[in-house]
Write a structure and sequence with these properties.
The structure is a single chain. By secondary structure, this protein is of the alpha+beta class. The protein has helices at about 15-20, 50-65, 70-75, 150-155, and strands at about 1-5, 5, 10, 30-35, 80-90, 100-110, 115-120, 125-140, 145. The strands form 2 sheets. Strands 3, 4, 5, 6, 7, 8 and 9 form a 7-stranded antiparallel beta sheet that branches.
Length: about 170
């Protein structure tokens, strides 16, 4: 997905140490975003709340892509992740010109649900800008009902199941 100022989220190969210390997961998916005018609210010159929701969704999508679970691949299988709940805490403002890092990881997977956490930070001053927790449900598209998450999908989404993974948002070929 590309905004007027260029690609929004891109892999961040070298996350700042303070970020890794703040994340309770050994291998979060880390992405960078450069804030430009199109990210800002039309009322106040800070990042719009809707941008954070978009980044949370896009980070999950990119993590899925890197794990071999792109939305196109899921559609071919007749399933898709649906958001059941977002809980977002806005902790600091971000402005045009800021460079942010978005980290996301799967906290837990159980039956039909996956709990994903997201942390948005500004490395320049080591500020936590936003934290989020999202509950995702895997849905059978034909029946529009939740279905059990296959073990192969669990292993792909949780890098703790894949030794040696350093940034699960890096697409390997």
């Amino acid at each position: 997905m590309t905004g007027p100022g260029g690609p929004d989220l891109r892999p961040h190969p070298d996350p700042p140490p303070f970020l890794l210390e703040a994340v309770p997961h050994p291998a979060p998916c880390t992405l960078a975003v450069s804030i430009h005018a199109s990210h800002l609210s039309g009322t106040i010159a800070h990042v719009s709340n809707t941008e954070y929701v978009r980044w949370i969704d896009r980070a999950a999508e990119l993590h899925g892509d890197a794990a071999g679970l792109s939305r196109a691949a899921l559609l071919e299988k007749g399933v898709m992740w649906f958001v059941a709940r977002h809980e977002i805490d806005y902790r600091a403002e971000a402005h045009a010109g800021d460079e942010l890092v978005v980290a996301t990881w799967v906290e837990r997977i159980a039956r039909v649900k996956a709990w994903r956490s997201t942390l948005v930070v500004r490395p320049s001053d080591e500020t936590v800008v936003c934290t989020a927790s999202t509950l995702w449900v895997l849905v059978d598209l034909a029946r529009r009902r939740p279905i059990r998450i296959p073990a192969t999908m669990v292993g792909a989404l949780d890098p703790r199941m894949r030794p040696g993974t350093t940034n699960p948002c890096e697409v390997t070929t």
